[in-house]
Design a protein that fits this description.
It is a single chain. The chain is built from 14 helices and 23 strands. α3 runs antiparallel to α6 (188-205), α4 packs parallel to α5 and α7 packs across α8 (241-253). It folds into two domains: 10-19 and 38-262 and 472-507, Aldehyde Dehydrogenase, Chain A, domain 1 (3-Layer(aba) Sandwich), CATH 3.40.605; 268-450, Aldehyde Dehydrogenase, Chain A, domain 2 (3-Layer(aba) Sandwich). The radius of gyration is 24 Å and the shape is globular. Helices cover 39% and strands 19% of the residues. The N and C termini lie far apart (72 Å). It is an alpha/beta fold.
Protein backbone atom coordinates (compact mmCIF):
# COMPACT_ATOMS: atom_id res chain seq x y z
CA UNK A 1 0.00 0.00 0.00
CA UNK A 2 1.49 3.33 -1.06
CA UNK A 3 1.89 5.97 1.66
CA UNK A 4 -0.03 9.19 1.00
CA UNK A 5 2.15 12.22 0.27
CA UNK A 6 1.40 15.33 2.30
CA UNK A 7 1.03 18.50 0.23
CA UNK A 8 3.37 21.31 1.25
CA UNK A 9 1.97 24.49 2.76
CA UNK A 10 2.32 28.02 1.44
CA UNK A 11 3.98 30.76 3.50
CA UNK A 12 1.60 33.66 4.00
CA UNK A 13 1.54 36.32 6.71
CA UNK A 14 4.38 34.73 8.65
CA UNK A 15 2.72 31.32 8.85
CA UNK A 16 2.87 28.07 6.90
CA UNK A 17 -0.76 27.71 5.82
CA UNK A 18 -2.84 25.16 3.95
CA UNK A 19 -3.20 26.36 0.39
CA UNK A 20 -6.52 26.94 -1.29
CA UNK A 21 -5.22 24.77 -4.09
CA UNK A 22 -6.75 23.99 -7.46
CA UNK A 23 -4.31 21.11 -7.88
CA UNK A 24 -0.88 19.77 -6.97
CA UNK A 25 2.38 18.98 -8.72
CA UNK A 26 5.20 16.58 -7.85
CA UNK A 27 8.77 17.49 -8.89
CA UNK A 28 11.08 14.99 -10.57
CA UNK A 29 14.77 14.27 -10.42
CA UNK A 30 15.87 15.20 -13.96
CA UNK A 31 18.92 12.96 -13.73
CA UNK A 32 16.69 9.88 -13.41
CA UNK A 33 13.21 11.01 -14.42
CA UNK A 34 11.84 9.68 -11.12
CA UNK A 35 9.32 11.49 -8.92
CA UNK A 36 10.79 12.87 -5.70
CA UNK A 37 7.81 12.01 -3.49
CA UNK A 38 6.80 15.55 -2.52
CA UNK A 39 3.60 17.36 -3.47
CA UNK A 40 3.20 21.12 -3.78
CA UNK A 41 0.04 23.16 -4.33
CA UNK A 42 -1.09 25.16 -7.34
CA UNK A 43 -2.64 28.14 -5.57
CA UNK A 44 -5.97 29.70 -6.37
CA UNK A 45 -6.36 33.48 -6.33
CA UNK A 46 -7.41 33.45 -2.68
CA UNK A 47 -3.82 32.56 -1.67
CA UNK A 48 -2.54 35.57 -3.64
CA UNK A 49 -5.20 37.81 -2.16
CA UNK A 50 -4.21 36.87 1.40
CA UNK A 51 -0.53 37.41 0.63
CA UNK A 52 -1.19 40.79 -0.97
CA UNK A 53 -3.19 42.06 2.00
CA UNK A 54 -0.50 40.91 4.42
CA UNK A 55 2.21 42.51 2.24
CA UNK A 56 0.45 45.90 2.31
CA UNK A 57 0.45 45.84 6.11
CA UNK A 58 4.12 44.85 6.12
CA UNK A 59 4.95 47.68 3.70
CA UNK A 60 3.42 50.25 6.04
CA UNK A 61 5.39 48.83 8.96
CA UNK A 62 8.64 48.76 6.98
CA UNK A 63 8.29 52.47 6.20
CA UNK A 64 8.95 53.10 9.89
CA UNK A 65 11.61 50.41 10.25
CA UNK A 66 15.24 51.53 10.67
CA UNK A 67 17.54 50.38 7.83
CA UNK A 68 19.69 48.66 10.43
CA UNK A 69 16.95 46.10 11.13
CA UNK A 70 16.65 45.34 7.41
CA UNK A 71 20.41 44.87 7.23
CA UNK A 72 20.31 42.58 10.26
CA UNK A 73 17.67 40.44 8.55
CA UNK A 74 19.68 40.08 5.33
CA UNK A 75 22.83 39.12 7.25
CA UNK A 76 20.94 36.73 9.50
CA UNK A 77 19.36 35.14 6.46
CA UNK A 78 22.79 34.58 4.90
CA UNK A 79 23.92 32.87 8.11
CA UNK A 80 20.80 30.69 8.22
CA UNK A 81 21.41 29.55 4.64
CA UNK A 82 25.00 28.68 5.47
CA UNK A 83 23.90 26.76 8.57
CA UNK A 84 21.44 24.70 6.51
CA UNK A 85 23.73 24.46 3.48
CA UNK A 86 24.02 20.68 3.39
CA UNK A 87 20.26 20.10 3.24
CA UNK A 88 19.63 22.98 0.84
CA UNK A 89 22.36 21.85 -1.55
CA UNK A 90 21.10 18.27 -1.49
CA UNK A 91 17.54 19.41 -2.21
CA UNK A 92 18.66 21.54 -5.15
CA UNK A 93 20.87 18.75 -6.49
CA UNK A 94 17.94 16.32 -6.48
CA UNK A 95 15.52 18.77 -8.07
CA UNK A 96 17.80 20.24 -10.77
CA UNK A 97 20.55 17.62 -11.35
CA UNK A 98 23.07 20.46 -11.06
CA UNK A 99 26.31 19.23 -9.44
CA UNK A 100 26.29 19.53 -5.66
CA UNK A 101 29.98 20.45 -5.81
CA UNK A 102 31.39 22.67 -7.05
CA UNK A 103 28.35 24.31 -8.70
CA UNK A 104 25.80 24.50 -5.87
CA UNK A 105 27.84 24.27 -2.67
CA UNK A 106 31.03 26.06 -3.65
CA UNK A 107 29.85 28.59 -6.23
CA UNK A 108 26.14 29.40 -6.24
CA UNK A 109 25.35 29.30 -2.53
CA UNK A 110 28.34 31.52 -1.58
CA UNK A 111 27.34 33.90 -4.37
CA UNK A 112 23.83 34.04 -2.92
CA UNK A 113 24.94 34.77 0.63
CA UNK A 114 27.44 37.33 -0.68
CA UNK A 115 24.75 39.29 -2.51
CA UNK A 116 22.53 39.18 0.59
CA UNK A 117 25.41 40.70 2.58
CA UNK A 118 26.04 43.28 -0.14
CA UNK A 119 22.36 44.21 0.06
CA UNK A 120 22.67 44.53 3.83
CA UNK A 121 25.57 46.95 3.43
CA UNK A 122 23.55 48.97 0.90
CA UNK A 123 20.59 49.11 3.27
CA UNK A 124 22.82 50.56 5.98
CA UNK A 125 24.58 53.04 3.72
CA UNK A 126 21.44 54.21 1.95
CA UNK A 127 23.34 55.36 -1.15
CA UNK A 128 20.60 53.83 -3.31
CA UNK A 129 18.33 56.68 -2.19
CA UNK A 130 20.40 59.19 -4.23
CA UNK A 131 19.27 62.27 -2.26
CA UNK A 132 19.34 65.61 -4.09
CA UNK A 133 18.94 68.92 -2.22
CA UNK A 134 18.32 72.29 -3.88
CA UNK A 135 18.19 74.65 -0.91
CA UNK A 136 17.70 77.76 -3.03
CA UNK A 137 14.43 76.48 -4.45
CA UNK A 138 13.38 74.53 -1.35
CA UNK A 139 13.34 71.28 -3.28
CA UNK A 140 14.56 67.87 -2.20
CA UNK A 141 14.22 64.43 -3.78
CA UNK A 142 15.20 60.83 -3.11
CA UNK A 143 14.30 57.30 -3.99
CA UNK A 144 12.03 55.46 -1.56
CA UNK A 145 10.45 51.98 -1.24
CA UNK A 146 7.82 51.32 -3.91
CA UNK A 147 5.69 48.85 -1.95
CA UNK A 148 5.08 45.09 -2.18
CA UNK A 149 7.26 43.43 -4.82
CA UNK A 150 6.47 40.13 -6.55
CA UNK A 151 9.55 38.14 -7.59
CA UNK A 152 9.35 35.30 -10.13
CA UNK A 153 12.46 33.13 -9.97
CA UNK A 154 13.81 31.12 -12.96
CA UNK A 155 14.47 27.41 -13.36
CA UNK A 156 18.25 27.50 -13.77
CA UNK A 157 19.53 29.15 -10.57
CA UNK A 158 17.86 27.58 -7.52
CA UNK A 159 19.74 29.89 -5.10
CA UNK A 160 21.19 33.02 -6.74
CA UNK A 161 18.04 34.00 -8.68
CA UNK A 162 15.45 32.24 -6.53
CA UNK A 163 12.35 34.30 -5.84
CA UNK A 164 12.90 33.91 -2.11
CA UNK A 165 16.67 34.44 -1.94
CA UNK A 166 18.14 35.79 -5.18
CA UNK A 167 19.26 39.12 -6.54
CA UNK A 168 15.79 40.57 -7.14
CA UNK A 169 14.75 39.49 -3.65
CA UNK A 170 17.82 41.05 -2.02
CA UNK A 171 17.43 44.31 -3.95
CA UNK A 172 13.73 44.66 -3.11
CA UNK A 173 14.27 43.94 0.59
CA UNK A 174 17.26 46.31 0.82
CA UNK A 175 14.99 49.13 -0.36
CA UNK A 176 12.50 48.35 2.41
CA UNK A 177 9.87 46.48 0.39
CA UNK A 178 8.09 43.27 1.37
CA UNK A 179 8.47 40.44 -1.16
CA UNK A 180 5.97 37.87 -2.37
CA UNK A 181 8.10 35.14 -3.92
CA UNK A 182 6.70 32.91 -6.65
CA UNK A 183 8.92 29.87 -6.35
CA UNK A 184 9.86 27.96 -9.48
CA UNK A 185 8.15 24.54 -9.58
CA UNK A 186 11.37 22.82 -10.68
CA UNK A 187 12.98 23.48 -7.29
CA UNK A 188 9.99 23.81 -4.98
CA UNK A 189 11.46 21.95 -1.99
CA UNK A 190 14.69 23.93 -2.25
CA UNK A 191 12.62 27.11 -2.11
CA UNK A 192 10.71 25.79 0.89
CA UNK A 193 13.94 25.17 2.80
CA UNK A 194 15.17 28.66 1.95
CA UNK A 195 11.88 30.25 2.97
CA UNK A 196 12.10 28.47 6.32
CA UNK A 197 15.58 29.97 6.77
CA UNK A 198 14.20 33.41 5.89
CA UNK A 199 11.47 32.97 8.48
CA UNK A 200 14.02 32.32 11.20
CA UNK A 201 15.98 35.39 10.12
CA UNK A 202 12.86 37.57 10.24
CA UNK A 203 12.38 36.62 13.88
CA UNK A 204 16.03 37.38 14.63
CA UNK A 205 15.73 40.85 13.10
CA UNK A 206 12.25 41.59 14.41
CA UNK A 207 10.85 42.52 11.00
CA UNK A 208 7.14 42.25 10.15
CA UNK A 209 6.11 38.63 9.67
CA UNK A 210 4.85 39.26 6.11
CA UNK A 211 8.08 40.90 4.94
CA UNK A 212 8.72 37.66 3.03
CA UNK A 213 5.99 35.34 1.73
CA UNK A 214 6.00 32.51 -0.80
CA UNK A 215 3.66 30.55 -3.03
CA UNK A 216 4.74 27.73 -5.35
CA UNK A 217 2.72 27.82 -8.53
CA UNK A 218 -0.13 29.71 -10.22
CA UNK A 219 -2.07 29.28 -13.41
CA UNK A 220 -1.38 31.86 -16.13
CA UNK A 221 -4.54 33.84 -15.41
CA UNK A 222 -3.71 34.29 -11.74
CA UNK A 223 -0.09 35.11 -12.51
CA UNK A 224 -1.24 37.95 -14.77
CA UNK A 225 -3.75 39.08 -12.15
CA UNK A 226 -1.06 39.10 -9.47
CA UNK A 227 1.35 41.39 -11.35
CA UNK A 228 -1.45 43.83 -12.19
CA UNK A 229 -3.05 44.01 -8.74
CA UNK A 230 -3.37 47.58 -7.35
CA UNK A 231 -1.60 46.51 -4.15
CA UNK A 232 1.62 45.63 -6.01
CA UNK A 233 4.46 48.14 -6.26
CA UNK A 234 6.67 46.37 -8.82
CA UNK A 235 7.59 42.97 -10.25
CA UNK A 236 10.89 41.21 -10.91
CA UNK A 237 10.93 38.31 -13.39
CA UNK A 238 13.62 36.02 -14.77
CA UNK A 239 12.58 33.38 -17.27
CA UNK A 240 11.43 32.73 -20.81
CA UNK A 241 10.48 35.40 -23.31
CA UNK A 242 7.02 33.92 -23.80
CA UNK A 243 6.09 33.93 -20.12
CA UNK A 244 7.76 37.28 -19.52
CA UNK A 245 5.86 39.07 -22.29
CA UNK A 246 2.51 37.78 -21.02
CA UNK A 247 3.26 39.15 -17.56
CA UNK A 248 4.58 42.38 -19.08
CA UNK A 249 1.35 42.93 -20.98
CA UNK A 250 -0.68 42.49 -17.80
CA UNK A 251 1.59 44.74 -15.74
CA UNK A 252 1.82 47.43 -18.44
CA UNK A 253 -1.95 47.50 -18.84
CA UNK A 254 -2.26 48.14 -15.11
CA UNK A 255 0.58 50.68 -15.06
CA UNK A 256 2.79 48.52 -12.85
CA UNK A 257 6.58 48.53 -13.37
CA UNK A 258 7.91 45.11 -14.26
CA UNK A 259 11.60 44.27 -14.74
CA UNK A 260 12.23 41.25 -16.91
CA UNK A 261 15.24 39.23 -17.92
CA UNK A 262 14.05 37.05 -20.79
CA UNK A 263 16.14 35.99 -23.76
CA UNK A 264 19.69 36.36 -25.03
CA UNK A 265 21.89 34.74 -27.68
CA UNK A 266 25.11 36.40 -26.45
CA UNK A 267 27.02 36.67 -29.75
CA UNK A 268 30.78 36.01 -29.79
CA UNK A 269 32.83 37.45 -32.67
CA UNK A 270 36.09 35.78 -33.70
CA UNK A 271 38.24 38.14 -35.76
CA UNK A 272 40.36 36.73 -38.61
CA UNK A 273 43.94 37.54 -37.61
CA UNK A 274 43.43 36.12 -34.14
CA UNK A 275 41.85 32.98 -35.59
CA UNK A 276 45.02 32.24 -37.55
CA UNK A 277 46.88 31.60 -34.28
CA UNK A 278 44.10 30.57 -31.89
CA UNK A 279 41.57 28.46 -33.81
CA UNK A 280 41.96 25.40 -31.60
CA UNK A 281 42.16 27.31 -28.31
CA UNK A 282 39.16 29.50 -29.04
CA UNK A 283 37.09 26.56 -30.31
CA UNK A 284 37.66 24.73 -27.03
CA UNK A 285 36.78 27.82 -24.99
CA UNK A 286 33.54 28.26 -26.91
CA UNK A 287 32.63 24.57 -26.61
CA UNK A 288 33.29 24.66 -22.87
CA UNK A 289 31.23 27.81 -22.40
CA UNK A 290 28.15 26.83 -24.41
CA UNK A 291 27.95 23.32 -22.86
CA UNK A 292 28.72 24.27 -19.24
CA UNK A 293 25.78 23.26 -17.07
CA UNK A 294 24.14 21.84 -20.22
CA UNK A 295 24.10 25.39 -21.57
CA UNK A 296 21.42 26.42 -19.09
CA UNK A 297 22.83 29.88 -18.39
CA UNK A 298 21.28 33.11 -19.62
CA UNK A 299 24.78 34.27 -20.65
CA UNK A 300 25.96 31.18 -22.52
CA UNK A 301 26.95 31.90 -26.14
CA UNK A 302 24.30 30.85 -28.67
CA UNK A 303 25.92 32.63 -31.63
CA UNK A 304 29.49 32.51 -32.96
CA UNK A 305 30.33 34.96 -35.74
CA UNK A 306 33.31 35.00 -38.10
CA UNK A 307 34.38 36.09 -41.59
CA UNK A 308 34.91 33.38 -44.21
CA UNK A 309 38.49 32.23 -44.78
CA UNK A 310 40.93 29.39 -44.20
CA UNK A 311 41.35 30.25 -40.53
CA UNK A 312 37.59 30.25 -40.03
CA UNK A 313 37.26 26.84 -41.68
CA UNK A 314 39.99 25.48 -39.41
CA UNK A 315 38.11 26.98 -36.46
CA UNK A 316 34.86 25.34 -37.57
CA UNK A 317 36.52 21.94 -37.83
CA UNK A 318 37.98 22.30 -34.35
CA UNK A 319 34.65 23.56 -32.99
CA UNK A 320 32.68 20.69 -34.51
CA UNK A 321 35.03 18.15 -32.94
CA UNK A 322 35.03 19.95 -29.59
CA UNK A 323 31.21 20.18 -29.42
CA UNK A 324 30.79 16.55 -30.45
CA UNK A 325 33.17 15.44 -27.69
CA UNK A 326 31.36 17.26 -24.86
CA UNK A 327 29.43 14.76 -22.77
CA UNK A 328 25.79 15.81 -22.30
CA UNK A 329 24.62 16.24 -18.73
CA UNK A 330 21.09 16.17 -17.36
CA UNK A 331 18.92 19.14 -18.22
CA UNK A 332 16.58 20.78 -15.73
CA UNK A 333 13.46 18.98 -16.91
CA UNK A 334 11.88 17.05 -19.75
CA UNK A 335 10.19 20.27 -20.85
CA UNK A 336 13.55 22.07 -21.04
CA UNK A 337 14.91 19.30 -23.26
CA UNK A 338 11.81 19.24 -25.46
CA UNK A 339 11.92 23.01 -25.95
CA UNK A 340 15.61 22.83 -26.87
CA UNK A 341 14.88 20.20 -29.51
CA UNK A 342 11.98 22.25 -30.90
CA UNK A 343 14.22 25.31 -31.17
CA UNK A 344 16.99 23.40 -32.96
CA UNK A 345 14.50 21.98 -35.44
CA UNK A 346 13.06 25.47 -36.00
CA UNK A 347 16.54 26.87 -36.65
CA UNK A 348 17.12 24.20 -39.29
CA UNK A 349 13.79 24.98 -40.91
CA UNK A 350 14.84 28.64 -41.01
CA UNK A 351 18.00 27.77 -42.94
CA UNK A 352 20.69 26.54 -40.53
CA UNK A 353 22.66 23.35 -41.19
CA UNK A 354 23.19 20.81 -38.42
CA UNK A 355 26.87 19.88 -38.02
CA UNK A 356 26.67 17.72 -34.90
CA UNK A 357 24.17 16.77 -32.20
CA UNK A 358 20.51 17.66 -32.56
CA UNK A 359 18.95 14.70 -30.77
CA UNK A 360 17.87 13.38 -27.39
CA UNK A 361 20.27 11.12 -25.54
CA UNK A 362 18.66 7.77 -24.63
CA UNK A 363 18.61 6.42 -21.10
CA UNK A 364 17.44 7.67 -17.74
CA UNK A 365 16.94 11.36 -17.16
CA UNK A 366 16.74 14.23 -19.59
CA UNK A 367 19.88 14.72 -21.68
CA UNK A 368 20.46 16.26 -25.11
CA UNK A 369 23.43 15.89 -27.43
CA UNK A 370 25.71 18.93 -27.60
CA UNK A 371 24.76 20.68 -30.82
CA UNK A 372 26.44 22.87 -33.45
CA UNK A 373 24.62 24.56 -36.33
CA UNK A 374 25.98 26.67 -39.17
CA UNK A 375 24.50 29.32 -41.45
CA UNK A 376 25.99 31.76 -43.94
CA UNK A 377 25.72 35.47 -43.34
CA UNK A 378 23.67 35.78 -46.52
CA UNK A 379 21.11 33.21 -45.37
CA UNK A 380 21.01 34.69 -41.89
CA UNK A 381 20.04 38.07 -43.34
CA UNK A 382 17.26 36.39 -45.35
CA UNK A 383 15.68 34.92 -42.21
CA UNK A 384 17.09 36.95 -39.32
CA UNK A 385 13.95 36.68 -37.21
CA UNK A 386 13.66 32.90 -37.43
CA UNK A 387 17.39 32.38 -36.95
CA UNK A 388 17.43 34.40 -33.71
CA UNK A 389 15.23 31.94 -31.89
CA UNK A 390 16.79 31.15 -28.51
CA UNK A 391 17.84 27.54 -28.00
CA UNK A 392 18.19 27.32 -24.24
CA UNK A 393 20.71 24.57 -23.69
CA UNK A 394 23.96 23.08 -24.96
CA UNK A 395 23.75 24.49 -28.48
CA UNK A 396 25.60 27.09 -30.53
CA UNK A 397 25.09 28.36 -34.07
CA UNK A 398 27.94 29.72 -36.18
CA UNK A 399 27.26 32.54 -38.64
CA UNK A 400 29.99 32.76 -41.30
CA UNK A 401 29.85 36.08 -43.16
CA UNK A 402 31.34 36.46 -46.63
CA UNK A 403 33.22 39.62 -45.70
CA UNK A 404 33.36 42.53 -43.28
CA UNK A 405 30.44 44.35 -44.90
CA UNK A 406 28.18 41.31 -44.52
CA UNK A 407 29.28 40.82 -40.92
CA UNK A 408 28.35 44.42 -40.17
CA UNK A 409 24.92 43.81 -41.70
CA UNK A 410 24.49 40.73 -39.49
CA UNK A 411 25.37 42.77 -36.40
CA UNK A 412 22.88 45.47 -37.39
CA UNK A 413 20.14 42.82 -37.58
CA UNK A 414 20.83 41.34 -34.14
CA UNK A 415 18.24 41.80 -31.42
CA UNK A 416 19.16 43.17 -28.00
CA UNK A 417 21.44 40.92 -25.93
CA UNK A 418 22.73 40.61 -22.39
CA UNK A 419 26.31 40.23 -23.62
CA UNK A 420 28.45 40.57 -26.71
CA UNK A 421 32.06 39.37 -26.99
CA UNK A 422 34.94 40.00 -29.38
CA UNK A 423 38.00 37.75 -29.62
CA UNK A 424 40.90 39.33 -31.50
CA UNK A 425 44.65 39.04 -32.05
CA UNK A 426 46.78 39.99 -29.05
CA UNK A 427 49.25 41.57 -31.48
CA UNK A 428 46.77 44.28 -32.44
CA UNK A 429 46.43 42.99 -35.99
CA UNK A 430 42.63 42.98 -35.66
CA UNK A 431 42.36 46.40 -33.99
CA UNK A 432 41.23 48.35 -37.06
CA UNK A 433 38.47 45.83 -37.73
CA UNK A 434 37.54 45.83 -34.04
CA UNK A 435 37.17 49.60 -34.22
CA UNK A 436 34.56 49.25 -36.98
CA UNK A 437 32.64 46.31 -35.49
CA UNK A 438 32.61 47.07 -31.77
CA UNK A 439 30.52 50.28 -31.94
CA UNK A 440 27.73 48.39 -33.71
CA UNK A 441 27.89 45.51 -31.23
CA UNK A 442 28.07 47.93 -28.30
CA UNK A 443 24.60 49.31 -29.13
CA UNK A 444 23.14 45.81 -29.08
CA UNK A 445 24.38 44.53 -25.71
CA UNK A 446 24.34 45.34 -22.04
CA UNK A 447 27.85 44.01 -21.33
CA UNK A 448 30.69 44.10 -23.86
CA UNK A 449 33.54 41.62 -23.34
CA UNK A 450 36.95 41.14 -24.90
CA UNK A 451 38.78 37.82 -25.14
CA UNK A 452 36.74 35.95 -22.51
CA UNK A 453 33.54 33.95 -22.62
CA UNK A 454 30.42 35.62 -21.22
CA UNK A 455 29.13 32.72 -19.14
CA UNK A 456 28.86 33.82 -15.53
CA UNK A 457 27.85 37.10 -13.92
CA UNK A 458 30.03 38.64 -11.21
CA UNK A 459 28.22 40.20 -8.26
CA UNK A 460 29.81 43.63 -8.50
CA UNK A 461 28.57 47.23 -8.34
CA UNK A 462 30.02 47.67 -11.85
CA UNK A 463 28.09 44.74 -13.37
CA UNK A 464 25.29 45.23 -15.86
CA UNK A 465 23.14 42.13 -16.15
CA UNK A 466 20.66 43.69 -18.51
CA UNK A 467 20.44 44.92 -22.05
CA UNK A 468 18.17 46.06 -24.89
CA UNK A 469 14.92 44.24 -25.61
CA UNK A 470 14.33 41.28 -25.73
CA UNK A 471 17.21 40.52 -23.38
CA UNK A 472 15.27 42.55 -20.83
CA UNK A 473 12.16 44.68 -20.78
CA UNK A 474 14.13 47.91 -20.24
CA UNK A 475 17.75 48.73 -21.17
CA UNK A 476 18.32 51.15 -18.29
CA UNK A 477 18.37 48.66 -15.44
CA UNK A 478 20.40 45.70 -14.19
CA UNK A 479 19.28 42.70 -12.15
CA UNK A 480 22.81 42.21 -10.74
CA UNK A 481 25.01 44.86 -9.18
CA UNK A 482 24.13 46.50 -5.89
CA UNK A 483 23.26 49.34 -5.32
CA UNK A 484 22.18 49.99 -8.93
CA UNK A 485 19.85 46.97 -9.01
CA UNK A 486 17.97 48.31 -5.97
CA UNK A 487 16.64 51.36 -7.85
CA UNK A 488 14.24 49.14 -9.83
CA UNK A 489 12.16 48.63 -6.72
CA UNK A 490 11.91 52.27 -5.68
CA UNK A 491 9.83 55.35 -6.41
CA UNK A 492 11.30 58.82 -6.88
CA UNK A 493 9.83 61.20 -4.29
CA UNK A 494 10.17 64.97 -4.24
CA UNK A 495 9.57 67.42 -1.37
CA UNK A 496 8.73 71.06 -2.20
CA UNK A 497 8.91 73.63 0.59
CA UNK A 498 8.30 70.92 3.19
CA UNK A 499 9.17 72.00 6.72
CA UNK A 500 12.53 70.63 7.90
CA UNK A 501 11.08 68.70 10.84
CA UNK A 502 8.76 66.88 8.43
CA UNK A 503 11.54 65.72 6.11
CA UNK A 504 13.29 62.35 6.24
CA UNK A 505 16.54 62.63 8.20
CA UNK A 506 18.74 62.19 5.13
CA UNK A 507 17.08 65.17 3.35
CA UNK A 508 17.47 67.71 6.14
CA UNK A 509 20.97 68.86 5.19
Amino acid sequence: MQTAVATAKVWIGGKWCESDAEGVFEPENPATGEKLGREFPVSRWSDCDRALSAAVEAAHALEKTPPEKIAVFLEAYAKELEADAEAIVQAAHEETALPASPRLKDVELPRTTDQLRQAAAAARQGTWRRPVIDQAKGLRSCYAPIGPVVVFGPNNFPFAFNGVSGGDFAAAIAAGNPVIAKAHPLHAYTSQRMAEAAGRALKTAGLPAATVQMIYKLNHENGARLVSDPRIGAVGFTGSKGAGLKLKHAADTAGKPIYLEMSSLNPVLFLPEGLKENAQKWARELADSCTLGSGQFCTRPNLALAIAGDATEAFMQELTAAIASREPHAMLSSTTRDQLHESIEALQQAGATLLTGGKNVPGKGYRYSSTLLRVSGKNFLKAADGLQREAFGNEVMAIVAADEAELLQVLEHLEGQLTGTVYSAASGADDALYGRLAPVLRRKVGRLLNDKMPTGVAVSPAMNHGGPYPATGHPGFTSVGIPTSIVRFTALQSYDNVRPDRLPDFLRG
